[in-house]
């Protein structure tokens, strides 16, 4: 599939306050697990850029602050001409996560 257009896009991530991940992570101080947040990020990027991320890889991701029930999450993602998508997730004035995706083709053969 062709590389996405080089443009900054903005979206929102909606995680219900009663999402089951909050119940067990952690009982007295519920936070959204990073894996759930990353999954939400990937779904929004795939939908908004109309690309299939199945052949993309996560180059890096950093979880910088906790996401609590009720946080309003904003996603910004930028597709560079180099075949990278950089993303940042913010809740109010806090950056909660950032990362980079790549559509670089892995060389064939043993790793």
State the main characteristics.
elongated; Thiol Ester Dehydrase, Chain A; 111 residues; 5 strands; 5-stranded antiparallel β-sheet
Describe this structure in words.
The protein is α+β, with helices and mostly antiparallel strands. The protein has one domain: Thiol Ester Dehydrase, Chain A (Roll). The chain is built from 2 helices and 5 strands. It has helices at residues 20-24, 34-49; strands at 8-13, 57-63, 73-79, 84-91, 94-102. Strands 1-3-4-5-2 form a 5-stranded antiparallel beta sheet, covered by helices on one side. A hairpin with a 2-residue loop joins strand 4 and strand 5 (94-102). The model has no long low-confidence stretch (mean pLDDT 88).
In short:
The protein has about 110 residues and is of the alpha+beta class.
């Amino acid at each position: 599939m062709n590389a996405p257009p080089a443009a900054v896009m903005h979206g929102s991530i909606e995680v219900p306050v009663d999402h089951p991940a909050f119940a067990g992570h952690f009982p007295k101080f519920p936070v959204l697990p990073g894996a759930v947040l990353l999954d939400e990020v990937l779904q929004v990027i795939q939908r908004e850029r109309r690309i299939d991320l199945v052949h993309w890889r996560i180059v890096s991701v950093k979880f910088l602050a906790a996401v609590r029930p009720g946080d309003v999450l904003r996603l910004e993602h930028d597709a560079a001409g180099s075949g990278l998508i950089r993303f940042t997730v913010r809740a109010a004035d806090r950056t909660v996560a950032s990362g980079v995706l790549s559509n670089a083709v892995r060389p064939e053969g043993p790793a």
